[in-house]
UniProtKB/TrEMBL annotation:
This is Uncharacterized protein. The keyword Transmembrane helix applies. The gene is Cnig_chr_V.g21041. It comes from Caenorhabditis nigoni. InterPro entries: 7TM_GPCR_serpentine_rcpt_Srz (IPR018817). The chain crosses the membrane at residues 12-33, 54-72.
Length: 82
């Protein structure tokens, strides 16, 4: 969220930092999903499969919930009361 007291440099740095974080995260995540799905059958016989599966589900939850504040902040969606 951009505040009135923010300097242009601070706003610029915040936008660049946010972009870099989300670009890195959303470039790495599809690769992880592809590798996980291609190796799922092999991992099912592994005793660590429940842990790996839980990590996979937790990452999906994280990425879905992480994009919502980013979209709200980027597009400055305002909910007006009645």
């Amino acid at each position: 969220m951009i505040f009135a007291s923010d300097t242009p440099t601070l706003v610029y740095l915040r936008l660049v930092f946010s972009f870099l974080i989300f670009a890195c995260l959303y470039c790495i995540f599809p690769v992880f999903v592809q590798v996980y799905c291609s190796n799922r059958e092999n991992h099912k016989s592994n005793p660590l499969y429940p842990t790996i599966n839980q990590l996979y589900r937790a990452l999906w939850f994280f990425y879905i919930t992480a994009i919502i504040p980013f979209l709200v902040d980027t597009f400055e969606i305002e909910v007006s009361g009645t």
